[in-house]
Design a protein that fits this description.
Blueprint (H helix, E strand, L loop, with lengths): L4 E5 L3 E4 L4 H14 L2 E4 L10 H14 L7 E7 L6 H10 L2 E6 L19 H10 L3 E3 L13 H16 L5 E3 L5 H9 L4 E5 L1 H5 L23 H12 L5 E3 L8 H4 L14 H11 L6 H13 L7 E5 L3 E2 L4 E3 L2 E3 L7 E2 L2 E2 L1
Parallel strand pairs: 2-3, 3-4, 4-5, 5-6, 6-7, 7-8, 8-9
Antiparallel strand pairs: 1-10, 10-15, 11-14, 12-13
The structure holds (4S)-2,6-dioxohexahydropyrimidine-4-carboxylic acid (DOR) and zinc ion.
The site of zinc ion has 5 residues, from loops.
Length: 345
């Protein structure tokens, strides 16, 4: 397909970091411009662990939105070893909490309060299985003996396969998959097990972290992988398989927090998300598969209606600013100073 315009059902982002306070105010409009809904990650400081905290956070997000938007934040709870099964019943009853996020303790940004031993949360997982509340997984082991490029595959072998066996009906999303092994595992799984794929993992391989020097703005977790894995992700995203759906993992950090001796993980893509996915799909001549991935598979998985309105993309390049406002600082967005080939009309 080589047409210069593409109309699709308005998409949703099934994995997003909106932060809080002034940072939230700076980024939420970027997402609301293109997406109708987003699954909002709970890794704030302190984390969003209760329905009451999720309700308050939701209120702050709604208050930070531009006046003319109908964007809906879909809230999540942060799973800790202190989470009680009753919180799951409350979450389900709330109508605004749509999932629970599992961070292995120490795996990534603000994951210190995460889970050390999955066995400690089995009663909570059992409640989630019963209430059909999805478990969203940061699927990487934290064992320092495992090479950082192998941590997703090790997670599948050590944790995901046993978890599937113990909780066969638990709805699960393996978030931001980065490897061929993950794509294959998910493809073979039943329909209540899915995966999100980011735009940056579709567009870059790990060479991008070291192109002419160290590139902190291409550092995220799970870290970018070899080209063969990127090819497997592109195949998974574009082949029409309903297991796979759009989740940007757009994760803004202040410029100084990334350009540092120990820089934070996270890539900001919300300013150009659907345009970047269009580029990735276009690279394979599969633009006709974008709508299902971006707008159908996610709501179908979560049991929510598909959006009724449309957006239009045009093959018209634009230049991404060098920086974007970010609270009292700035954030360096993906493709800063360079072109994105597609524009939102
Ligand atoms: O790169 C990442 N950034 N990966 C994560 O898992 C967390 C995220 C963040 O919150 O900054
Ligand atoms: Zn994330």
């Amino acid at each position: 397909m080589s047409s210069a315009r593409l109309e699709i059902t308005r998409p949703d982002d099934w994995h997003l970091h909106l932060r809080d306070g002034a940072a939230l105010g700076a980024v939420v409009a970027d997402t609301a411009r293109q997406f109708a809904r987003a699954i909002v990650m709970p890794n704030l400081k302190p984390p969003v662990t209760t329905v009451a905290q999720a309700e308050a956070y939701r209120g702050r997000i709604l208050a930070g939105l531009p006046a003319d938007t109908r964007f809906q934040p879909l809230m999540t709870l942060y799973l800790t070893e202190a989470t009680v099964p009753d919180e799951i019943a409350r979450a389900k009853a709330s109508g605004f909490v749509h999932a629970v996020k599992y961070y292995p303790a120490g795996a990534t940004t603000n994951s210190q309060a995460g889970v050390r031993d999955l066995a400690h949360v089995y009663p909570v997982l059992e409640a989630m299985e019963r209430h059909r509340l999805p478990l969203l997984m940061h699927g990487e082991v934290t064992d320092p003996a495992v090479d950082i490029f192998d941590r997703e595959q090790a997670f599948i072998e050590r944790h995901l396969i046993p978890l599937r066996a113990r909780f066969p009906q638990l709805r699960m999303v393996l978030e931001h998959i980065t490897t061929r092994a993950a794509a294959e595992f998910i493809r073979e799984a039943p329909a209540h097990v899915g995966a999100t794929i980011t735009a940056h993992h579709l567009l870059l391989n790990r060479n991008a972290i070291f192109e002419g020097g160290i590139r902190p703005h291409h550092y995220c977790l799970p870290v970018l992988k070899r080209e063969t894995h990127r090819q497997a992700l592109l195949e998974a995203a574009t082949n029409g398989d309903p297991h796979f759906f759009l989740g940007t993992d757009s994760a803004p950090h202040a410029q100084h927090a990334k350009e540092a001796a120990c820089g934070c993980a996270g890539i900001y893509t919300a300013h150009a998300a659907i345009e970047l996915y269009a580029e990735a799909f276009d690279s394979l001549g599969k633009l006709d598969r974008l709508e299902a991935f971006a707008s159908f598979h996610g709501p179908d998985f979560y049991g929510l209606p598909r959006n009724a309105d449309k957006i239009t993309l045009e093959r018209k390049p634009w230049t991404v600013p060098d920086t974007l406002p970010f609270g009292d600082s700035v954030c360096v967005p993906f493709r800063a100073g360079q072109d994105v080939a597609w524009s939102l009309a």
